Amino acid sequence: MVALIDGIKVPSSLLGNLNETNLDKANNSDLKSALEKDGYLFLRNIVDKKIIGNARHDIFKKLNAVDELSNPFNEGIASGRSIRDKLFNDRGQFWENISSTKSLRTVTNGKVLENIFTRIFEAPSIAFDFIFLRAVAGGKFTHMHCDAGFFTRKTQKVLTCWLVFTEVTLDRGPLFIIEGSHQFREIQEKYNGFDVDIHKNKKASIDIHPVEFAKKRNTKILTAEFKPGDALIFGMYTVHGTFENHAKNNKIRLTCDIRFQPKNEPKDPRYFGVKPCGTTGAGYGELNSARPLNEDWHIR
After folding, report:
1. What pLDDT digit, counting tens, does each position of 158-185 carry?
2. What is the pLDDT of residue 98?
3. Which residues are CB-neighbours of 84 under 8 A, at least 6 positions away?
4. If 257 and its partner were Cys, which of 81, 132, 172, 219 is the partner (CB 3.0–4.6 Å)?
């Protein structure tokens, strides 16, 4: 199966497999060591498939109601149409409502993930209230970047959890990680202290194509084929992005980014509270997912 990024085929020689960590067999020290060594933790089946399925069903039903998914909607097939803007005046409010779906929040802000991050931090953890749910249709991908410029204003002790709600084969645009990038000195020097909301003359995305980026550093682009309930956890300076969704069956990818930090660390008010404003203050309207499935994405 072919991996594409921005229409460019990724050579198979540059692709590598993510190292899996067995959560049941690993102790807290093992989790910390693997995260420090690889810059990520790849965990299989950490959330029950039925619970994941309930959330997926509820989200797909709402996307079907704005004519963005074809029937039967549970198959997650993009229709190429949308009446989202006809039915809702505020795109941000629409996506906030979807992101507040009870069955979704049971997963993202529930005890299962919280307990995993408590083990990793070896201290009580808390999830950001502002989450990044992504329904990704054909032709779309996330540009390569690291997360430091978004989430480290108050503390460096933040981790991202990329959680999977649909099958994500290589053609449906899975997340990739640049092998060893958490140890790239130039990345840490460039993005340490960078705040995308303050330093508006600088982009968070890395302009060079991932293929050239990996070649230049003689490293691999790591990924996997994911199942619902799988997760990737990584730090703020781990370089990552997603492959392009070019599935011929028009199935979308549904994933969610949830950030966690130790509960006793300072909290960024942009991401916590009853109605957090998000990175730029525009709330959920700032997210690409607030755009209809048949509309292009912006680049930060």
Report:
1. 999 999 999 999 999 999 999 999 999 9
2. 98
3. 66, 68, 91, 94, 292
4. 132
Question: What are the boundaries of each domain within the chain?
Answer: 4-290
What's the gap between Cα 178 and its chain centre? 15
173 Cβ neighbours under 8 A, 6+ residues apart: 136, 140, 141, 242, 243, 244, 245, 246, 253
pTM: 0.97
State both tokens at 293.
């499935």
Fold of 4-290: Jelly Rolls (2.60.120)
Residue 5: HSE in the Cβ half-sphere, 13 Å Cα cutoff: 23
The three-class DSSP label of residue 68 is: coil
* Among 222, 231, 225, residue whose Cα is nearest residue 10: 222
The pLDDT value recorded for residue 277 is 97
Strand ranges, E, within the chain: 4-5, 8-9, 15-17, 40-43, 125-127, 132-136, 159-164, 175-178, 221-223, 231-234, 240-242, 253-262
Model pLDDT, residue 279: 96
CB of 173 closer than 8 Å to CB of 136: yes
pLDDT < 50 regions, the chain: none
